Amino acid sequence: MSTNIPRRGLMLVLSSPSGAGKTTLSRGLLASDSNIMLSVSATTRKKRPNESEGRDYFFVSRDGFDAAIEAGEFLEYATVFDHLYGTPKKPVMDALAAGQDVLFDIDWQGTQQLKERAREDLVSVFVLPPTHDELERRLRIRAQDSDDVVRKRMSKAADEISHWPEYDYVIVNDDLAIAQEKIKAILDAERLRLTRQVGLSDFVRRLT
Description:
Low-confidence stretches: none
Helix content: 40-55%
CATH superfamily of one domain: P-loop containing nucleotide triphosphate hydrolases
Mean pLDDT: 92
Order of helices and strands: EHEEEHEEHEHEHHEHH
Radius of gyration: 19 Å
CATH architecture of one domain: 3-Layer(aba) Sandwich
CATH topology of one domain: Rossmann fold
Largest sheet: 5 strands, parallel
Strand order of the largest sheet: 2-7-1-8-9
């Protein structure tokens, strides 16, 4: 019989350069752990035919997004290809209060904003490729892009990688299964952090 001590959820950020395997790792974590959910972003871009409101994104107008920024309703937001994307604060905070963990697939800029607004709830992990050549190989296989496009992606990757010291943890994704185990170990340990075990004081009081 396991003892269930109430705890506060956490925000787990996975960041990496394109091609390092972050999306695959995120999907694996969500599939294997029922107590973590993917953060749903708001966006000003139009809904695509295969997308659903509230599952893929919250689709809002530009005026609505700007109003939400003014009201402080986003944990983080950014402009990507002329569209705004942001993380609504309320559903995340409600989930954390209920003991639910929330996974974020965002870049270093979004992570910085989360750190400014909710550092106590944040656990950040940066995923590195094993080598420069392997990253380039993955980009070429996945995208089938021209040499010029691959060079641009590699240049952007170098800029993203330069932000690795800003994260709590760094893992090298040279073996997908091992990288997945490392992320799970980080999550398990952070769930046990004393500051998140909000029911621990009452539990100890009953013991004594």
